[in-house]
Structures are given as structure tokens and as C-alpha cells.
Amino acid sequence: MTGFWNADAPDGQPVRLTYVSTAAPGGTAEFILRDPCGRVIGRLRFRACHECRTGRILDLWVCDMWQRQGLGRGLVRSLFAHRRGYRWNTTLQSRPGRAFFAAMTRETTLSLPHGGPLCPHLMGWLRRTWRRLLHAY
């Protein structure tokens, strides 16, 4: 999936949004933003579980000179459109990240808490094994 956004690029050209996914279910996928010259200027990485309809935003960044143009919002909105009806959470956030995700929660009415994965399918094998051991005793 590739799309174009009209952002304030220096030469007026739109930025390109590309979706990249791994073949493994629950594997890491990402939306990548490239400037008119093809340089990566933003990225949103996530994992999603189709079975549980949950997802986890792993990281989101936009290059400093491209910030404050709505590109981060656009990445999150693209994710929500791509995975409609999913519940989401995020990894631990920096102070600007907390402010950003709080604003996105208000704007989209989707809760974006930080914390562990919302379903066991998105946990790593070590964490799943540890949880199983704890629950067995």
C-alpha cells in the first residue's frame, strides 16, 4: 500500500506513505514516510493480533525538520484506518510522546494507554513462558 500526502515539502511535492508488513502473523509492521527525494522522514512501527483485534504501537517518530506538520497524526490515523475496530496501546512514552498520544486520544476517542501488550499473542516467547510458569504455581 502506497499513498501520497500533501505536506509542506520544500519544493511543494507530496510526501509518500508506504505500508510494510512481515509475513508472520503478529509480526512487526510499519508505515514509512518518505520525502520527495525518497529519504525516510517518519515511521510508525506496530504489531497487531487479528484474532484478538488488538495492537501495540512500538514506536513513532518524525524527523525534526518535518515535525509540527501533522505527519505523526497522519501516521496514527492511517494505522487506525488500516486496522479498524482494534484496541491499541503503546510502549512507554517520553514526555512529548505522552502529550501526543493524549491529544490523539482526545481527537480519535480511542484510548492509547501505555503498558504491556493487550493480548498474549503479542508477547515475546520469554514473557509468555514466564507468565505460564507464574500461573502454574
Description:
The structure is a single chain. It contains three helices and six strands, in the order E-E-E-E-E-H-E-H-H. It has a single domain (2-136), classed as Aminopeptidase (3-Layer(aba) Sandwich). The chain has helices at residues 71-82, 95-108, 125-136; strands spanning 2-5, 15-21, 28-34, 40-49, 54-62, 87-90. The protein has a six-stranded mixed sheet with strand order 1-2-3-4-5-6, covered by helices on one side. GO terms for molecular function: acyltransferase activity, transferring groups other than amino-acyl groups. It holds the Pfam family Acetyltransf_1. This is GNAT family N-acetyltransferase.
Please give the structural blueprint.
Blueprint: E1 2-5, E2 15-21, E3 28-34, E4 40-49, E5 54-62, H1 71-82, E6 87-90, H2 95-108, H3 125-136
Parallel strand pairs: 5-6
Antiparallel strand pairs: 1-2, 2-3, 3-4, 4-5
GO molecular function: acyltransferase activity, transferring groups other than amino-acyl groups
Organism: Streptomyces phaeolivaceus
Keywords: Transferase
In percent terms, what proportion of residues is strand?
Answer: 25-35%
Helix content: 25-40%
Number of E strands: 6
Number of helices: 3
- Class based on secondary structure composition and strand pairing: alpha+beta
Q: In which order are the strands of the major sheet placed? A: 1-2-3-4-5-6
CATH topology, which one? Aminopeptidase
CATH superfamily: Gcn5-related N-acetyltransferase (GNAT)
- Overall pLDDT level: 79
Main sheet specs:
6 strands, mixed
Poorly predicted runs are none
Distance between the termini: 46 Å
Tell the overall outline: globular
